[in-house]
Amino acid sequence: MTDPNQLIEDYEQRTAALLEQAEEAKSRIANLTGAATSQDGAVTVSVSAGGALLSLSFGTKADDLPKDRLAALVLSTAKRAQAQAVGQIATIMAPLIGDNSEAMQFVQSQIPPIDVPDDDAPPSPPQQFVVNEEQQEAVATPPPAPRPARRPAEDDDTDFDQRSLFKKEGGW
Fold first, then answer.
1. How many angstroms separate the CA atoms of 153 and 81, rounded?
2. What is the distance of C-alpha 34 from the center of its chain?
3. Which tens digits make up the pLDDT trace of 48-96?
4. Where are the alpha helices (DSSP H) in 31-117?
5. Please, what is the end-to-end C-alpha distance for the chain in angstroms?
6. pTM value > 0.85
7. How far apart are CA 89 and CA 76, in angstroms?
8. 34, 115 in Cβ contact below 8 A?
9. CA atoms of 84 and 48, how far apart (whole Å)
10. What does the pLDDT read at residue 127?
11. What's the pLDDT score for residue 54?
12. 56 close to 7: Cβ distance less than 8 angstroms
């Protein structure tokens, strides 16, 4: 027959080991970082799993890029770095909860997908922030095309009365 005290002691040891593994996984996840370099080497970024920028450096190719392209390259490289960091969560959690367990499915469902754009994609047009409905209408309605300049009226010599329409001769 099995000793109940021994069962409880074994259970406590397994629970303590599991708690230690969970604390280690928690620490590793809290300190996750991801790093990525753009395909052309112009940008290198390091971010936390939450996407916070930890480091940013520019290669020599960055000097040749227009600012809007460089900005887009920084953002896309940062997203790739974040996707790399977030991808490590499953690797950290697998030994603790199992690769195909319901707990792993839950963990993966809690990780938001990260849309990673291609480095070679041209930058998207800047988004405009709209504060109120009047501005929304102004943004939605393009400004009218400028009117062509008016040609000066030609004097047709048919104006016999040289008096002003707005001035009464002899005073008011």
1. 66
2. 16
3. 888 899 999 999 999 999 999 999 999 999 999 998 888 888 888 888 8
4. 67-97, 102-110
5. 127
6. no
7. 21
8. no
9. 10
10. 53
11. 94
12. no
Question: Residue 33 class from Cβ within 10 Å (0-12 exposed, 13-18 middle, 19+ buried)?
Answer: middle
Residue type, position 63, single letter: D
- AA identity, residue 7: L
Contact between residue 45 and residue 53 where contact means Cβ atoms under 8 Å apart: yes
The full DSSP string for 27-78 is HHHHT-EEEEE-TTSSEEEEEETT--EEEEEE-GGGGGS-HHHHHHHHHHHH
SS3 call for 21: helix
**Paired strand residues for 55:** 46
pLDDT tens string 94-124: 888 888 889 888 888 888 777 777 655 554 5
Here the tokens at position 27 are 């620490």
> What is the identity of the amino acid at 29?
I
CA within 13 Å, CB half, 50: 5
Place of tokens 């390259």: 73
Picking from 114, 47, 112, the residue whose alpha carbon sits closest to that of residue 74 is: 47
User: CB neighbours of 73 closer than 8 A, spacing ≥ 6?
Assistant: 38, 42, 43, 62, 65, 119
Confidence of residue 155 (pLDDT cuts 50, 70, 90): low
